[in-house]
Design goal:
14 helices, binds flavin-adenine dinucleotide, FAD/NAD(P)-binding domain, elongated
C-alpha cells in the first residue's frame, strides 16, 4: 500500500473543495486534494453548459432569505465569501462577469471552462497537489501512532490502495444528484456510522411526475409553458406565492425554473401526503373577471378551443393542459373553465429521482458541526458544500454557498491546526 503524509487532505474537487484548497494554500498550508473522478469540477462544468450562474446581484437581505430555514447558519458563510467577493474572485482569475436581466450573475462568456482552467492553474502554481482517480472509501482511522496527524484516510487508486495521514481533513463530497459526475452520496452511511448526524439526501430543484395521458405526453413533452404563474400552499400553511415564469412539460410531468423554485415545498408535501396540488394560472396578465367575461361571451358555432383562442389567445399547450385536467365533462361547464384558467389544479404525484435533480437537500446536519464546520464527532474533520444540510433555489445561490462554506471549513481547519495540543 502506498502512503502519504499531508497537513491537510481535501477530499472532493468540486467548487467547495477547490475553494477550501485555495484558502488553505493561500495561508501557507500544504494541501493535497483527492477526487474519485479523472478530473475535478465536473458538475461545475456541467453547470456552465446552460450558462454558469455564479451568484446573484440582489441585496444581502433577500439573498440570505433564499436559504430559508437554514438562513441563520448560512449567513456567517456568506460573510466569509459573499456574492460581491465571488465576482471579484472571478475577475481575479481574468473572468469578467455581468448581471443578467433577472439579477443573476454570469461570466461574460457564460462558460465555466475558462474559469475552471484559470483556477486550477492558480491552485497548482500555489502548490496544491491534485490526486485524481482517488476514491475515498470511507476509511477514517484515528492515528494513534503519529502525534499531530490524527487521521488515516483510505483511498482506492489506479495503482492500488493508498493510505493518507492528515492532520486535518476537509470533506467536500457533494450531494446526491448527477452521480456520474462524481457526487454519488456514498459517504452518507460512512459518516452516519461514525456518529455524524446526516439527514437523508433528497432531490432539490427537481421536476415532478404528473402522469399525463398518452395524448398529452406524446404531443407536448418538451414544450414550454410560457408566461404562466404558479402558486402553492402546503397542508402546514407554508406558501409559495403567485409567481410568474416558465416551466416545461416532460414526458411524465413538469420541470424548469418556476417549478424548481417551489420544489422544496412540493417535495415535502408529497412525502407527507402522497401528492401536491399546484395551482397554475394560465393567463397571469388577465384578471379573473376579464377571463370569465371572455369565456362566457357567446361563441356561436365556434368550437370551445377556437373560442378560447380567439377571445383569450389561449392555445397550444396551455389549452391542452386545460382539456387534460378538466376532461371532456369539465369543459362543458363554462364557469369551471373560466375559474380553471386562472387557477388550474395540477396534481403532482412524485418528485423525480434525486439523480436527475439540479441539487440535493439533506446531508450533514448543521448541528453535527461546530461554527468552523468541524464534525463534533470527528475532531479535525471538516465538511463543506452541497453535502451539508441546506438547500436553495437556482439563481447562483448553490455555488455561492458551496464555495463560501469551503472558505469557512478551510479557515476552521487552519484554526484547528494552529491550536496547541497536549
Ligand atoms: C445541471 C446542473 C446545473 C447547475 N447549474 C448551477 C448554476 O448555474 N449555478 C449554481 O449556483 N449552481 C448550479 N448547479 C449546482 C452546483 O453545480 C452544485 O451545487 C455545486 O457543484 C456543489 O459543489 P460541491 O463542491 O459541494 O460538490 P460537487 O460539485 O458535487 O463536487 C463533489 C466532488 O466530490 C467528489 N467525490 C464524491 N465522493 C467522493 C469520494 N468518495 N472520493 C473522492 N471524491 C469524491 C466528486 O467526484 C466531485 O468532484 C447546477 C447543478 C447541475 C446538476
Amino acid at each position: 500500500m502506498n502512503s502519504l503524509l499531508a497537513d491537510i487532505a481535501v477530499i472532493g474537487g468540486g467548487p467547495a473543495g477547490l475553494m477550501a484548497a485555495e484558502t488553505l494554500s493561500a495561508a501557507g498550508a500544504q494541501v493535497h486534494l483527492f477526487d474519485a473522478m479523472p478530473s475535478v469540477g465536473r458538475k461545475f462544468l456541467l453547470a456552465g453548459r446552460g450558462g454558469l450562474n455564479l451568484t446573484h446581484s440582489e441585496a444581502a437581505e433577500p439573498f440570505a432569505s433564499r436559504f430559508g430555514e437554514r438562513r441563520a447558519q448560512v449567513e456567517p458563510w456568506l460573510a466569509a465569501l459573499g456574492p460581491q467577493q465571488l465576482r471579484e474572485w472571478a475577475h481575479g482569475l481574468g473572468v469578467e462577469t455581468f448581471v443578467g436581466t433577472s439579477g443573476r450573475v454570469f461570466p461574460k462568456d457564460m462558460k465555466a471552462a475558462p474559469l475552471l482552467r484559470a483556477w486550477l492553474h492558480r491552485l497548482r502554481a500555489a502548490g496544491v497537489q491534485f490526486h485524481m482517480r482517488h476514491r475515498w472509501l470511507g476509511v477514517l482511522d484515528a492515528n494513534a501512532d503519529m502525534p499531530g496527524a490524527p487521521w488515516t484516510l483510505g483511498f482506492a487508486a489506479p495503482a492500488g490502495d493508498v493510505a493518507v495521514q492528515a492532520r486535518a481533513v476537509v470533506l467536500a463530497l457533494g450531494g446526491g444528484s448527477w452521480a456520474r459526475l462524481g457526487s454519488d452520496g456514498a459517504w452518507v452511511p460512512w459518516l452516519a456510522d461514525r456518529g455524524v448526524g446526516v439527514a437523508p439526501l433528497l432531490p432539490a430543484n427537481c421536476g415532478f411526475d404528473v402522469g399525463w395521458s398518452p395524448y398529452f405526453s406524446e404531443r407536448f413533452a418538451g414544450q414550454p409553458f410560457k408566461s404562466v404563474a404558479i402558486e402553492f400552499r402546503d397542508s402546514r400553511g407554508r406558501a409559495f406565492t403567485h409567481r410568474k415564469g416558465e416551466f416545461i412539460a416532460t414526458a411524465s410531468g413538469v420541470e424548469g425554473s418556476l417549478i424548481y423554485a417551489a420544489s422544496g415545498l412540493l417535495r415535502d408535501e408529497i412525502a407527507a401526503h402522497g401528492s401536491a396540488d399546484l395551482m397554475v394560472d394560465l393567463l397571469p396578465d388577465r384578471s379573473a373577471e376579464q377571463v370569465r367575461a371572455e369565456v362566457l361571451h357567446p361563441r356561436g358555432s365556434r368550437s370551445l378551443a377556437n373560442h378560447l383562442k380567439g377571445r383569450l389567445g389561449l392555445e397550444g399547450i396551455k389549452s391542452a393542459l386545460l382539456f387534460e385536467v378538466l376532461g371532456r365533462e369539465g369543459m362543458h361547464d363554462m364557469e369551471r373553465v373560466a375559474a380553471a384558467i386562472k387557477a388550474l389544479p395540477l396534481k403532482l404525484m412524485a418528485a423525480r429521482p434525486i439523480d436527475e435533480a439540479i441539487s440535493s437537500a439533506g446531508g450533514v446536519r448543521l448541528d453535527a458541526l461546530d461554527a468552523r464546520l468541524m464534525a463534533r464527532a470527528l475532531p479535525g474533520v471538516f465538511c463543506a458544500g452541497e453535502m451539508l444540510d441546506w438547500e436553495a433555489p437556482t439563481g447562483g445561490y448553490l455555488l455561492t454557498a458551496s464555495m463560501a462554506s469551503g472558505v469557512v471549513a478551510a479557515r476552521g481547519s487552519l484554526d484547528w491546526l494552529a491550536q496547541p495540543r497536549a
